Amino acid sequence: MGRFGQGARWRVMAAIVAMASVGCGSDDGSSHATTSDGAVADVGANTSDGGAADGAAADTGTLDTGTLDTGTLDGGKSDGSQTDAGKADTLSVDAGPKDAGASKPPEMGSSCVLSNPSCGAKLTCKAWTDGKAYCFCPDGQTYKGGLCSGDLTNVTSMCAYTKKDCTGKGFCFDVTKTTCAYLAEKKLTHPGCDELEKTGNKAAAACVSSVTDKSSPHHDSAECPLVQYWSNPTDFPIDCRCAGKLEDACRRPYNLPPKTSFAEGPRMRDLASTVQAWNGVVVGKEWLLAVGWSTSTKKSQTMIFGIDIATGKRRHVSGTYSDPAKGLTTVGAGDPFVNVMDLKLGKDGMLYAVGGKSDIAPPKVWRIDPKTGDRKLLFDEETADPKTLCPNGSTLPGKKVVQLVPEGFAMDASGNFYFAYINMPGRGVVRFPSDFSKCEFLTRVPDANQLTTLKDAVGKGYDEVQFQLRAFEVVDDTLYAISDTKLLAVDLKTGDRTLLSNAKSVGGLGEGPINAEGLGDRWIRWDPYRKVLWTYGIKGGSGAVAVDPKTGNRYTWPCWHPTLGIQATCGSTGTALVPGYLNFGGMAFDPAPPHNLLFAHDLFSVVRYEVKTGNAHIHSL
Fold it and tell me: Where are the alpha helices (DSSP H) in 211-271?
């Protein structure tokens, strides 16, 4: 619902003005008023909202709408001629006390003025202290072809009829029987519904906002049209769920001008023309986020940023960046990074990073001191002793060890590392101790068609695994992984596999979106606050899909309405968070209640997502 016009209270400024005839403004939008001595005054151009501006201080007496119906004006012709039904009736108005200090407002709106009895609708008149009188089409009605679209009896908007002053309290919303039926169904209430029930009116005017923070500059501009938005208001300073909001915080980050910035500190966007924010881990009050960048001469570089979860402020933690004056600059000492993609926090308080030249290249693992940024390379598959790697059982010439990939990487509470492997022998997961001294298969689904001697399965259970496992997340004694549209759980003690959710259109498991929309497949994150697994990135066309591990049910961009609980959606996320462009970007949880989400989005920005409403806005850029 758009903001209503400003002439809805039907007030009159000055003494009673008697008119011998009534007419309408010209079709070109200009309007004039004829005074009692016959002079014509130019009162300004019309606007299109049908309402008169009433910003003048002389807006004092209240117009009794019943006194307007003193002359029959319907039947008048627009050419100015008079029919029997359109006699020159005198419209008297009950004016308030005269205020000598004001004149006409600067903008008159779509105005009808004193001229001839040619209007086919009853009009509202205002007399001003400058001696002129003007008539206006009521709010919600249009001026076209010399006519107003109706009279006061046709005004269905209580906001227009009462001109409710909502300054500082949001904007005027018509609470209707339909509105109250929605609220009753959802077990929600609104004071306007009580008024509606008592009076029996068609609507009740109420001041509402979908932004709870009254000090926010966007409180009075949050005009969400759907009752669901203001029945479930956002605690963020701006509501980007409403279509048409053009504030920068609601725009897609990639489309903003290069110099647009949110929050303080060095910017990810300034690293290079080729940049990619990957994933990270929350340490204290910061999200430590790995950001890769490259130029024609500097390949596969990384800077780990610390992003303040509350303010969005950024700092360099470890890695390299290009200083405009000094060139390549390093933060922290030790072995250089190669395109870090994900970070884990060890029980020793150190960071553990995985990276590689690409997401399917041989992985490397570094240990990083989060306080100093110093780092040490712990593992590199390309240079590792083959005896410390798992065999692939190949009977063909060439490599005899499994081919690891960094897109399936996890770490458990004991400091063990887990990797996915591709090609031989089939699909599965391998495990390394903290010193990478040996390798063992955690779980393995063999491929009978491969030329390998490793034909036996490791671990029992679900074995319809046709594609590699990826997007690892370890929770207690379980490793969660994605394989195409399937979400599996692997027991860390036995290697046994369980299918939790399958988004296939035929023979699926769990309800919700299906096929490419059914699951994200780049990352999994366990949500300890809502007891669901979030899957997101790459294949998930709808972006983030939460999975209930007990039922396997899938929810696209779910929100946890405080009364309703989990829903499939709470409206649009707005344009700041474009689902199809999450790609490789990671996600984090705010440790402070209500535990909202952070997404690395559009390569170089961080967007906040409010889980109770579905609202999202740019947090750091």
Answer: 227-231
State residue 134 phi and psi, 5-degree precision: -135, 150
Range picked from 161-165, 309-313, 449-453 for highest mean pLDDT? 309-313
State whether 60 and 124 are in the same domain.
yes
Among 333, 348, 377, the domain boundary falls at: 377
Predicted local distance difference test score (pLDDT) of residue 126: 46
State in Å, rounded, how far the first CA of the chain is from the last one: 31
| Rounded-to-integer distance, Cα 585 and Cα 444, Å | 29
Kindly state the average pLDDT of the residues 212-241: 84
Sign of the torsion formed by the C-alpha atoms of 401, 403, 406 and 408: negative
**Per residue in 22-69, pLDDT tens?**
333 333 333 333 333 333 233 332 333 333 333 222 222 222 223 222
Give the 3-state secondary structure of 150-163. Answer: CCHHHCCCHHHHHC
- Check whether residue 25 and residue 143 sit in a common domain: yes
* 151 shares a domain with 55: yes
Same domain, 3 and 73: yes
Q: What are the residues facing 579 on neighbouring strands?
A: none
Q: Is the same domain home to 187 and 312?
A: no
Cα dihedral sign, 478-524-383-403: positive
Instruction: Give the pLDDT mean for 243-262.
Output: 84
What is the reported pTM?
0.74
Question: Domain limits at 291?
Answer: 271-377
Give me the sign of the Cα torsion angle 52, 55, 57, 59.
Answer: positive
pLDDT of 608 > 60? The answer is yes
Same domain? For 282 and 214 the reply is no
**Which residues face 589 on adjacent strands?**
597
Confirm whether 477 is domain-assigned.
no
Residue 195 lies inside a defined structural domain of this protein: yes
The arithmetic mean of pLDDT across residues 192-215, rounded, is: 85
User: How many Å apart are CA 438 and CA 444, to the nearest integer?
Assistant: 17
Please report where in the chains the tokens 């004092």 appear, as a residue.
60
- Report how far residue 60's alpha carbon sits from residue 83's, in angstroms, rounded to the nearest whole number: 35
What DSSP string runs through 370-401? TTT--EEEEEETTTS-GGGS-B--B-SSS--B
Side chain identity at residue 561, one-letter code = H
Is 41 a member of any domain? yes
Phi, psi of 608, rounded to the nearest 5 degrees: -95, 140
> Do 140 and 231 sit in the same domain of this protein?
no
Q: Peptide bond preceding 594: is omega within 30 degrees of 0, i.e. cis?
A: yes
Q: How far apart are CA 450 and CA 423, in angstroms?
A: 9
Q: Is pLDDT at 596 greater than 90 in this prediction?
A: yes
Whether residues 39 and 145 share a domain: the answer is yes
Distance of CA 291 to the CA centre of its chain: 23
Instruction: Check if the beta carbon of residue 9 is closer than 8 Å to that of residue 60.
Output: no
Count structural domains, the chain: 3
Would residue 263 count as lying in a domain? no
